[in-house]
């Protein structure tokens, strides 16, 4: 059910209700899951037959008026500026909302940019330049602001890579994603974003992002986000030495960087194959491979990492995707690094967050850890699917 396999989940719930006919909890979950299955079937039945129709093509910015009482930040000649970004972050800290016209403009511009990018982006870091890699943010906007407090705002002299899972679970996902997209538009050559497994329609439906966008904007915007996420790059290669992806490595040994570059990514993540594994796989301490505990992707051992690095002439990999007590973990003989940047994940885990900094001349990773900061009284998963709330 948590993977969005609702028909399969319904069969499981049906089995439980038959085995435990007096279990109220089982009946409730069966009923809620049945509602989702019927809703999906209904939406599919009434959907437009031409699935290639782009939501972006239906957006009419000129028809969106700026109300006289709007006092938030405004794009300058339709462009993001540094002042706009500073004003936007201050607006969000006060729990304000960016005008829908500017929000749509950012989404249309970022989609146009990402659609012209490769699936694997090469990043050059000069010898004395610092480069920062952040892991999952998961809608924790005030912790994102703390990263910028600790490490400085993004700029041409302070570049960043955010490694997927920008949204879901945390209930300030809209604020996170527009902040990140804004900096990407402002500094396209110094700010990078990789797709995570939560930049997908199924995850967004279950874990809160879709509900949050609908609550703060419109269902149309939620669909537009899905189109944008389909174009996010899948991985980044730093100085031809370090590969960064959200999940991990692959179910086979012969994968090259050229194979990653060749992935057709404009789609929802499949349930197997290279694109799936880049978003979903996890390392494990023992050699070899095994079925993933998540039900998607695989688990890979230190021998798999060693082979992949040798074949592709790389030093190590950086990935995210898993909460770690210290915000990071070094595994596979220092060749597989996990970084997770959402401290006290879901307000319950008590973990630290972390980010990695490195310099081009040696590419040696350094780790900065931090605790969660206070946020307004909005609980995580506030916009999540009703069925999922029954699981907690």
What's this model, at a glance?
The chain contains 13 helices and 14 strands.
Looking at this protein, list some descriptive labels.
single chain, 392 residues, alpha/beta, six-stranded mixed beta sheet, five-stranded mixed beta sheet, 13 helices
Overview of this protein structure:
The chain has 392 residues and is of the alpha/beta class. The chain is 37% helix and 14% strand. The protein contains 13 helices and 14 strands. The protein has a 6-stranded mixed sheet. β8 and β9 (298-300) form a beta hairpin. α3 packs antiparallel against α6 (173-186). The longest helix is centred in the first third of the chain and has 23 residues, at 24-46.
Compute the CA-based radius of gyration. 21 Å
Mean model confidence by pLDDT: 94
Strand content: 5-15%
Main sheet summary: 6 strands, mixed
Q: Which strand order spans the largest sheet, edge to edge or round the barrel?
A: 1-5-6-10-12-11
Find the count of extended strands (DSSP E, 2+ residues).
14
List the total number of helices. Answer: 13
SSE succession: HHHHEEHEHEHHHEEHHEEEHEEEEEH
Could you outline the blueprint of secondary structure elements for this entry?
Elements: H1 6-19, H2 24-46, H3 82-93, H4 100-115, E1 120-123, E2 130-134, H5 141-151, E3 160-162, H6 173-186, E4 191-193, H7 201-207, H8 209-216, H9 219-229, E5 235-238, E6 242-245, H10 257-261, H11 274-280, E7 282-283, E8 289-291, E9 298-300, H12 302-312, E10 316-319, E11 328-331, E12 336-339, E13 353-359, E14 366-370, H13 386-391
Parallel strand pairs: 1-5, 2-3, 3-4, 6-10, 7-9, 10-12
Antiparallel strand pairs: 2-13, 5-6, 8-9, 11-12, 13-14
């Amino acid at each position: 059910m948590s993977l969005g396999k609702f028909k399969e989940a319904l069969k499981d719930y049906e089995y439980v209700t038959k085995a435990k006919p007096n279990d109220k909890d089982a009946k409730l979950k069966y009923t809620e899951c049945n509602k989702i299955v019927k809703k999906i079937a209904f939406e599919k039945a009434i959907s437009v037959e031409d699935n290639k129709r782009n939501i972006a093509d239906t957006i009419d910015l000129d028809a969106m008026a700026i109300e006289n009482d709007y006092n938030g930040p405004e794009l300058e000649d339709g462009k993001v500026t540094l002042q706009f970004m500073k004003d936007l972050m201050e607006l969000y800290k006060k729990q304000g909302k960016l005008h829908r016209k500017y929000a749509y403009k950012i989404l249309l511009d970022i989609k146009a940019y990402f659609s012209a990018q490769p699936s694997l982006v090469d990043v050059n870091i000069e010898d004395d330049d610092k480069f920062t890699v952040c892991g999952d943010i998961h809608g924790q906007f005030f912790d994102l602001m703390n990263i910028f407090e600790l490490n400085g705002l993004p700029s041409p002299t302070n570049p960043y890579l955010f490694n997927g899972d920008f949204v879901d679970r945390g209930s300030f996902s809209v604020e996170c994603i527009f902040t990140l997209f804004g900096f990407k538009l402002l500094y396209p050559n110094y700010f990078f974003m990789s797709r995570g497994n939560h930049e997908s329609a199924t995850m967004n439906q279950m874990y809160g992002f879709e509900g949050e966008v609908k609550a703060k904007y419109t269902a149309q915007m939620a669909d537009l986000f899905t189109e944008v996420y389909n174009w996010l790059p899948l991985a980044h290669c730093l100085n031809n030495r370090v590969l960064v992806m959200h999940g991990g490595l692959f179910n086979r040994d012969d994968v090259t960087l050229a194979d990653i570059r060749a992935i057709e990514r404009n789609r929802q993540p499949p349930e197997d194959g290279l694109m799936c594994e880049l978003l979903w796989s996890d390392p494990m301490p023992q050699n070899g491979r095994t079925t993933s505990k998540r039900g998607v992707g695989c688990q890979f051992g230190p021998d798999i990492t060693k082979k992949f690095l040798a074949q592709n002439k790389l030093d190590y990999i950086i990935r995210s995707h898993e909460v770690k007590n210290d915000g990071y973990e070094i595994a596979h003989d220092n060749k597989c690094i996990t970084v997770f940047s959402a401290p006290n994940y879901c307000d319950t885990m008590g973990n630290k967050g972390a980010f990695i900094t490195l310099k081009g001349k040696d590419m040696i990773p350094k780790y900065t850890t931090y605790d969660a900061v206070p946020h307004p009284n909005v609980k995580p998963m506030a916009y999540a699917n009703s069925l999922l709330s029954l699981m907690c």
